[in-house]
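User: I'm writing a tutorial on reading structure tokens. Could you give me a worked example: one chain, its sequence, then its tokens, then a sentence or two explaining what the tokens reveal?
Assistant: Sure. Here is the example chain.
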Amino acid sequence: MASSTDGWIRRQGFPDLAPDANLSRGPRERLIQALLGLCALVTVFTTLGIAAILIGESVAFFRQVSLAEFFGDTQWTPQFADKHFGIWPLLAGTLMITVIAALVAIPIGLAAAIYISQYAPDRVRRWLKPSLELLAGVPTVVYGYFALTFVTPLLQHVLPQMQVYNALSAGIVVGIMIIPMVASLSEDALRAVPRSLAEGAYALGATKYEVVLRVVVPAALSGIMASFILALSRAIGETMIVTLAAGATPKLTLNPLESIQTMTAYIVQVSLGDTPQGTVVYQSLFAVGLVLFVLTLGMNLLANRIILRFKESY
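And here are its predicted structure tokens:
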């Protein structure tokens, strides 16, 4: 059909109107196409370069530290005289922060998205969504000091046993930080649902509440789930908040009131310049970075699978 249309256009004396005419003949268009393709390849090569550096340095690390010790030991003390390289304390701290952030961001972000897209009047929506998205522009170091100087003292009035550096306040503030991502992406997914679906439900006698929860939200489920996973990937990779508020004590614990250390916080600690290059301690940050890279990559791949699994075509 496309080839016959192109032929008809050219037979009528309008060759320049053919879809690919300018792309195949104009040197400027070919140059622009090549530049755009190069820009797309930059992201691919950047990702491959990061992976190559992490893998190369991690191989040198694993020549000195076995995989059995790395994944089997429950202590992480690379800067002590008695060195241990068990990743589980850092991994547990990272996952604890992520779980707390998810408990804060997912319900609040989804509720905000539902209100903005389904209930808010136009005049409210016009200022509410940009105001919510302003949270995404706040520097993370500001969030970190907010957690340390406001959230932690506030929680200590309720939980006196809470330490100054703890996972709970850091996780809550990380959750606050990713609320705009959950709300904005979920709101876009909800507004992309065709209005005809809701109108059909109203025609059958459904209430507003029933239409939203039983029609609109299930229809936008792929986009909503993708927003959850992408936001949690952002929480896993957060650095400054956990560095300032969660502490620097790698500890395998489930108590959020204690000081912990995440993988990103450890990378910051080793990267300050006091660790000589080429040592096993210096190489350990690449091994930790590789685990973090694989974890976030897996989260993003899972988000893509969920989008394809629950995608609705209208």
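What the tokens reveal: The first helix runs from residue 2 to 11. The mean pLDDT is 85.
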